[in-house]
Design brief:
about 270 residues; alpha/beta; Purple Acid Phosphatase, chain A, domain 2; six-stranded mixed sheet; 6 helices; about 25% helix
């Protein structure tokens, strides 16, 4: 039986995130014999949002599918661009009026993966439809449509408790529930039940020395002075990749192993 290796890369933040991904992804794919690559790209354009340009750059770097989250419309141009990118998905529990696609289905040779994004409700805006109710309703429909057991959920949420709860809610029903949004990789990767990979947060890919990718100087000023200030992305050539590598049994639809990955290096123009 042939296992597959799936790499999921944490929130891509700005130019340095895109550049280290482009620089390191070919090596990672070769080193780990990666079959599918997915990432969260909702901060890929200047640290907030996504555009056709940054989505295209991520896909051309070797990413198969991209998930989005609460910053999906921070770049207003994406409202006109979203419907042109079948490999990019908005949260499944978003309003029907949101443009774009609510899932990504990728098939290579005889293997396939369905990628979904859900947005949490606790301490995060906008508040969308209840993600637990939505995935409960939609999961059987997706399984019937695509006849696949290989489903990965990017749960983009603020609350660690909500993420862990979603992991147990979907235990043994999907390949993985992978938390994103908080940008700090957590050390709690595990296999739930008989084959559902889980981690509270995959982490971020971008500047090492900022505050969640944003300028540390501005972040400190905001905390000390309690005055509003526009966040800017951290200007730093020292960048990181945070990701998880999953080894799956595609026939059984089970994850056998999940491993955290962290890479630090300088990126240049």
């Amino acid at each position: 039986m042939t296992n597959l290796n799936i790499l999921f890369i944490g929130d891509i933040v700005g130019r340095s995130g895109r550049k280290i991904l482009k620089q390191k992804l070919p090596l990672l794919k070769q080193q780990y014999l990666v079959d599918f690559v997915f990432c969260n790209g909702e901060n890929s354009a200047g640290g907030l949002g996504i555009t056709a340009s940054t989505a295209g750059e991520l896909l051309s770097s070797g990413v198969d599918g991209i998930t989005l989250g609460n910053h999906i419309w921070s770049q207003k141009i994406w409202l006109q661009q979203a419907s042109h990118f079948r490999q990019v998905c908005r949260p499944l529990n978003a309003p029907d009026a949101w443009p774009g696609f609510d899932h990504v289905y990728i098939k290579k040779e005889n293997h396939d993966v369905l990628l979904l994004s859900l947005l949490g409700q606790a301490f995060i805006k906008p508040v969308l439809k209840n993600p637990f109710n939505v995935i409960e309703e939609m999961l059987p429909k997706f399984k019937e449509k695509y006849r696949t057991k290989n489903i990965i959920i990017d749960f983009h949420a603020e609350s660690t408790a909500e993420k862990i709860t979603m992991g147990y809610f979907l235990e043994n029903r999907v390949l993985a529930v992978l938390g994103t949004h908080t940008h700090v990789q957590t050390a709690d990767e595990k296999i739930l039940g008989n084959g559902t990979a889980f981690i509270t947060d995959v982490g971020m890919t971008g500047p090492v020395n900022g505050v969640l990718g944003m300028s540390k100087i501005i972040a400190v000023e905001r905390a000390v002075n309690l005055l509003p200030a526009m966040y800017n992305i951290e200007k730093d050539s020292y960048a990181m990749i945070n990701a998880v590598l999953m080894t799956i049994d595609p026939i059984a639809g089970q994850t056998k192993k999940i491993e955290r990955i962290q890479i630090f290096d300088h990126v240049f123009e």
